[in-house]
Specification:
Elements (H helix, E strand, L loop, with lengths): L1 E10 L4 E9 L7 H12 L6 E8 L5 E9 L10 H8 L5 H15 L7 E5 L2 E5 L8 H11 L37
Antiparallel strand pairs: 1-2, 2-4, 3-4, 5-6
Length: 184
């Protein structure tokens, strides 16, 4: 990865340097941590005082533009939002936890699934229902009613629409002339 400094500006009010850069890379967009480490070595700055604000890859190119802030001391870093400090300094090692969750999920799916089994016993078919909470008959009937569709030959009857009342016509008001006088 190659880093090119595009613009460097000193901000004496916040006691920091603000740097815009362009990173050139091969393959996939590099992780934030990798870009930050490369910036620290390029700028020769302190690890604890460097905040990588943003990095955005350019469409269709193996390049990204970004913004980094290098503070003079830790006291001046109080203006930084907590989420940005957390993003820059916390090391994420969630891969083992994620793998454990995946394994747990696989373990749950490997359990015998609840499937209806048909067996032939003396010429009869016996259906074995999966164990679990059974629904009351009323709920089963309601579900069947919801699932039923009207037959094609039958047309659902819609309630008749109320007829619109024949409205009385409002008496016409006499129109005014341009002069403001009424006709009539």
């Amino acid at each position: 990865m190659k880093i090119e400094i595009v613009n460097e500006r000193k901000n004496p009010l916040l006691n920091r340097r603000e740097i815009r850069f362009r990173a050139y890379y091969e393959g996939a967009t590099p992780r934030l941590i990798d870009v930050r480490k490369k910036l620290i070595s390029t700028l020769k700055s302190d690890d604890k005082l460097t905040i990588l604000n943003s990095i955005k890859s350019e469409f269709g190119r193996h390049a990204a533009v970004g913004y980094v802030k290098v503070y003079a001391n830790e006291d001046s870093m109080t203006v930084e939002p907590k989420h940005r400090i957390k993003k820059n300094f916390e090391v994420k090692e969630k891969k083992p936890e994620a793998e454990e969750k995946i394994e747990e999920a696989k373990g749950e799916t490997e359990k015998p699934e609840e499937v209806k089994v048909e067996e032939k016993v003396k010429g009869e078919k016996i259906e074995e229902k999966p164990p679990g909470p059974e629904k009351p008959e009323e709920e089963v009937k309601e579900e069947k009613k919801l699932e039923e569709k009207p037959e094609e030959g039958k047309v659902e009857e819609k309630p008749p629409r109320p007829e619109k009342p024949v409205g009385e016509k409002k008496p016409e008001e006499p129109k005014e002339d341009k002069g403001g006088k009424k006709n009539g």
